[in-house]
Design goal:
Family: Belongs to the thioesterase PaaI family.
Pfam families: 4HBT (PF03061)
InterPro entries: HotDog_dom_sf (IPR029069), PAAI_dom (IPR003736), Thioestr_dom (IPR006683)
Oligomer: single chain
Low-confidence stretches: none
Largest sheet: 6 strands, antiparallel
Shape: globular
Strand content: 35-45%
Structural class: alpha+beta
Number of helices: 3
Keywords: Hydrolase
Length: about 140
């Protein structure tokens, strides 16, 4: 018998996390409805000042939040992002950052997740909030 974690990891393997997430080096390390974690390297995702690009934080957050929402939505459903915002409070300049995604609201038609992104020293660099709409997968 499989458990929730095994089922979630199989969902992630089957569905994939998308070409952009792969290009940016995002790797999921934990994946459940209640908590998802992924890492991303700073190198290759910087802006001209050699700081992690603000948009890279958002891509990490959206990857985590959207995948978690789709896992929650279940078979035959599709979760699509309808709102995202980010507040950057520190700049990562090297190493990896880690995003931890937790649900704020898991409803029938909407989910809201918060993603806290920290550097290797555990300092928060960005806080992202994403809202996803859950709809029938057949409606695209």
């Amino acid at each position: 018998m499989t458990n929730e974690t095994d089922d979630a990891l199989e969902f992630l393997r089957t569905r994939g996390s998308g070409a952009l997430a792969a290009k940016m080096g995002i790797e999921f390390t934990e994946f459940t409805v209640q908590r998802s974690v992924a890492t991303m390297p700073v190198e290759g995702n910087t802006q001209p000042a050699m700081l992690l690009h603000g948009g890279a934080y958002v891509v990490l957050g959206e990857s985590l939040g959207s995948m978690a929402a789709n896992l929650f939505a279940g078979p035959g459903k599709l979760a699509v992002g309808i709102d995202i915002n980010a507040t950057h409070t520190r700049s990562a300049t090297e190493g990896i950052v880690t995003g931890v995604c937790t649900p704020i609201h898991l409803g029938r038609s909407l989910t809201v997740h918060e993603i806290a992104v920290t550097d290797e020293q555990g300092r928060r660099c960005s806080t992202i909030r994403i809202t996803n709409l859950i709809k029938d997968a057949s409606t695209g």
